[in-house]
Amino acid sequence: MLNKLRTELTHFKSQSHNFKTLTLTNLIYSVVLPVIDIFVAAYVMRSSNDPTKVVVYQLTIYTGIPLTFLINGWLLNRFPIKILYSLGMVLSAVSMMIMMSLKTLDITGIGIAGIVMGMSFGFYWANRDFLALATTNDKNRNYYYGLETFFYTIIAVVIPVFIGWFIEFSAHDGNAKSAYKMITGLVFLITIGASVMCFKGKFENPGNKKFIYFKFDPYWYKLLFLAVLKGLVQGFLVTAPAMLIMLLLGKEGALGTAQSVGAIFAALLMYVIGRNTGPQHRIYVFGAGLALFTIAALINGILFNQTGVILFMLFLLLAKPLLDLAYFPIQFSVIDILTRKENRSEFAYILNHEAGLYLGRLTGAGTFLILAYCFSNEIALRYAIIIVAVLQLSSYWVAKGIIKQGKSMTAPGPAQETLQNSPVVPNTL
């Protein structure tokens, strides 16, 4: 076992300086992610007891993300990417501070906090995606995301339990909000630490300054459709666990425990998969994640009780990292191909990809709101997840077609000559 650990450590040390710096930056910031993803939604739920406010909060986040992606593209022409990446991490703590300062959680206050959190995610993910794309290649991307997911999932064992029971213990004395404020202060310090680590990297900004295009190669639109399908369930992966557990279990402590059950097994599995799989295995990993998420949604819809929530969380612990582990390398391989073919900046594709995610998020969240207003919150929580999960199953065949076409476009011979001789689409802004 010790020799195996040394082998894995040696393999990590053999990666580039930027690879290691980016991984460690994301490792530090990953301590914050369970707080942002789960407990902010739980705070809104505890304070308002209204699932629709949680979804409104999520919609304002989703509105802030693409706007900030666009702003980030312009700022990259003026500021180092390290500054913008760090700004995204720090803004997540600022958003929580805004939320904690509200005396009453009205729609306006929730919306402001949501927009700021959306800006945080926009700066964070726009620059993180570019840095991951620039730092890795198609051969080591499975390892990168497997390693990253391993750390994220291990941290998900400790953080939700610690914070959940800390909040619940404080709530017995009527000081739940004070506990949330203390956690917010800790989040701010951690984001500063992640920013310091980020500045140790030798990261370069995108070379091509143009980043807005209105026409793309037909191959790109296939990935854009895949992004829409991915966006359908993204909102539910963030807010559904908090809403379900607060409604059916009622305690942040239970929320934290449910998040942690099975997480160690999931972490080890993700690392093994990332370390031992290559591009040819991605469609199988992706399909497994889709199947597990659909099973989780069906279990929740059929049972809709405490047992159903726990099982939903267990399946989700495996489904989400499997989907991410396969999806990001598929996305980046398409960008690699089209960057060479169309002679464009990688950030142009990252920005346009966010538009596809946004359309999917609006559709998914809109499905929840329609069911909530026309029927009830219970109907929305019970059946909206099933609807989007079933729709997302079609992602398997879309991804399979993308991978197959990508192989033909990069294969030597006539296909490669076609790639090299294809004209660049000229429509730009």
From TrEMBL:
- Sorted alphabetically, which InterPro entries does this protein's record hold? MFS, MFS_trans_sf
Q: Which residues cross the membrane?
A: 21-44, 56-76, 83-101, 107-126, 147-167, 179-199, 220-248, 254-274, 283-303, 309-334, 355-373, 379-399
Its keywords, alphabetically, are: Membrane, Transmembrane, Transmembrane helix
MF terms in GO: transmembrane transporter activity
Q: Does the keyword Transmembrane apply?
A: yes
Protein name in the entry: YQGE family putative transporter
